[in-house]
Amino acid sequence: QLQQQHVACQVLPERLAEGKPGQGFLSSFFTNNQKCQLMLLKTLETNPYVKLLLDAMKHSGCAVNRERHFSCEDCNGNVSGGFDASTSQIVLCQNNIRNQAHMNRVVTHELIHAFDHCRAHVNWFTDVRHLACSEVRAANLSGDCSLINEIFRLHFGLKQHHQTCVRDRAILSILAVRNISKEVAQKAVDEVFESCFNDHEPFGRIPHNKTYARYAHRDFQNRDRYYSN
């Protein structure tokens, strides 16, 4: 199931009606939209990856507002979320996000795209290498390739496993949002991989788990203090 959840960047090719409530056994208690909103709020308030990214966005002049920049929607297919560059909005697929841990990963992944959109002139639609770079960074820094996630995918024990996972996840994400061949996607990822894999902003390091993310957040908060000295 995790392998099927390709967290797409920047474009859900077809966005359905915004905020459409889901139906099901628990709909009498919470709609899909209400559950999505509650999980999003918890992620924004407690997840160290997300808290660092929110601070970095604000520091870069792109402060994030929950009501303006996040939208819980029903989505087609297995896509979990996306960053819509045309509206600077993160779309969360309320019918596909299964639990709080999944919400944490999706929000982190898409905020990395939003951060890249804020700090650089990313040609999302015209240069597949730009998309590939952001997908490499998102897979590398969001926890998508954490050991626990890879164990659930039955992928582990390989030499340079983290790099292999990042490359594979980036290619899958590109293919989820671009009508191009796998060979073209692989070529784009290979061309940018070294530089983009080693670009750890705003974390300063690869945050392999929440403890690493907390340390990275602390370091980011103290960054201006170091510079002033």
TrEMBL record:
EC number: 3.4.24.-
Metal-binding listed as a keyword: yes
Keywords of this entry: Hydrolase, Metal-binding, Metalloprotease, Protease
Annotated Gene Ontology cellular component terms: mitochondrion
GO BP annotation list: mitochondrial protein processing; mitochondrial proton-transporting ATP synthase complex assembly
Domain of life, per lineage: Eukaryota
GO molecular function, one term: metalloendopeptidase activity
Family: Belongs to the peptidase M76 family.
Protein name as annotated: Mitochondrial inner membrane protease ATP23
Species: Mustela putorius furo (European domestic ferret)
Lineage: Eukaryota, Metazoa, Chordata, Craniata, Vertebrata
